[in-house]
Automatic annotation (TrEMBL):
Top-level taxon: Eukaryota
Membership in a protein family: Belongs to the PMEI family.
InterPro entries, alphabetized: Invertase/methylesterase_inhib (IPR035513), Pectinesterase_inhib_dom (IPR006501)
Signal peptide: 1-19
Start and end residues of each Pectinesterase inhibitor domain: 25-162
GO cellular component, one term: plant-type cell wall
Biological source species: Setaria italica (Foxtail millet)
Lineage: Eukaryota, Viridiplantae, Streptophyta, Embryophyta, Tracheophyta
GO biological process terms, semicolon-separated: plant-type cell wall modification
Single Gene Ontology MF annotation: enzyme inhibitor activity
Protein name: Pectinesterase inhibitor domain-containing protein
Keyword list, A-Z: Disulfide bond, Signal
Keyword Signal on entry: yes
Length: 171
């Protein structure tokens, strides 16, 4: 049986790898911050950073902590910027969808059911999924409006289907 031995060796390798990041100055710093700063979080986040792990005094740990925070904030800023761009495109999509639905209703009220049907399927029903796909494939890797996109998709398809039902009864 080779497998259990391999697993044990792997576990030892992982434990050794973790121990490399731990340092007594990080431990002492985090111990001094108890209980306001959770000890495990403090040790974990600092030990994962090579600069913090190599620090030899509290000043070095503090500088590394600021740097870790800077890197994280810059990363979040990038996500927000992508999201703003992607949501701006979705805003344009939905602006057109709402305009189109107003036109659908105008056609509908005037009895131009076929025009209403063409307009809703050409300019409204695809919009929610276009927005959803844009966010899914986008750089932000976040979709804060996936639920709304799903609800709009279902509603637009339902409205379109009912208009088509009406047309088939009239023709
Ligand atoms: C630091 O503390 C962790 C547990 O929080 C421990 O596993 C590790 O051995 C400690 N390292 C040093 C260098 O004291
Ligand atoms: C800050 O973090 C980045 C990325 O981990 C690293 O390349 C850089 O050397 C760090 N600078 C300092 C001053 O810790
Ligand atoms: C309605 O559709 C017909 C045929 O496609 C077209 O000729 C007409 O201009 C449309 N009317 C409106 C108000 O869009
Ligand atoms: C879809 O919208 C565009 C732009 O408003 C318009 O020109 C076009 O006639 C619409 N399509 C249908 C089928 O009504």
């Amino acid at each position: 049986m080779v497998q259990p031995i391999a697993i044990i060796l792997l576990a030892v390798a992982i434990a050794t790898g973790l121990a490399v990041g731990s340092s007594s100055i990080i431990n002492a710093t985090c111990a001094a911050l108890k209980p306001l700063q959770p000890y495990d979080y403090c040790v974990g986040v600092l030990s994962a950073d090579p600069v913090a792990a190599a620090a030899t005094d509290v000043r070095g740990v503090a500088a590394a902590a600021v740097n870790i925070t800077t890197v994280k904030a810059a990363s979040t800023l990038r996500v927000i910027s992508y999201l703003v761009d992607e949501l701006t495109t979705c805003r344009r999509y939905y602006t057109n969808m709402v305009k189109s639905l107003v036109d659908v209703l105008i056609d509908f009220d005037a009895g131009r059911f076929k025009n209403a049907s063409l307009e809703i399927s050409a300019n409204a029903t695809g919009v929610p999924m276009d927005c959803d796909i844009l966010l899914f494939e986008g750089n932000a890797h976040k979709d804060p409006i996936t639920q709304e996109n799903g609800e709009n998709d279902l509603l637009a398809r339902l409205a379109s289907a009912i208009i088509d039902l009406l047309i088939s009864k009239h023709v």
